[in-house]
Amino acid sequence: MVLRLVVDAPNLLLHFAEGARLPDPAGLLRGEGRRGRYVCLGAVASGDEPALRALVAVAAAGASVTTEIDIDHKPGATA
Predict the structure, then answer these.
(1) How sure is the predictor about 33, in pLDDT bands with cuts at 50, 70 and 90?
(2) What's the number of CA atoms in the CB half-sphere (13 Å) around residue 76?
């Protein structure tokens, strides 16, 4: 998993599994975990969109070829 959307009402977060390793000159990433970081999508200004796209591109470039999408995910599940 590289990215995931997390609903943390009233926020929608874009979580980067390896966010701590990503270059973030715009300072969009939040969190203090050893690996993961997130961007609160509601707080992203229109001028920050290029920086957000760059974060997604760098994260995706470092991903493995296999992509998993869990369409059966249930909120609160620990899988």
Answers:
(1) confident
(2) 0
Q: Is 27 left (phi over 0), alpha (psi -120 to 50) or beta?
A: left
Q: Which tokens in the block code for residue 25?
A: 């000159």
CA neighbor of 56 nearest in space, from 24, 31, 33, 30: 24
Nearest to 33 by CA among 22, 44, 25, 43: 22
Q: What's at 79, amino acid-wise?
A: A
1 CB contacts (<8 Å, ≥6 apart)? 17, 68
pTM above 0.90, yes or no: no
Would you say 18 and 34 are in contact if contact means Cβ atoms under 8 Å apart? no
Indicate the residue type of 12: L
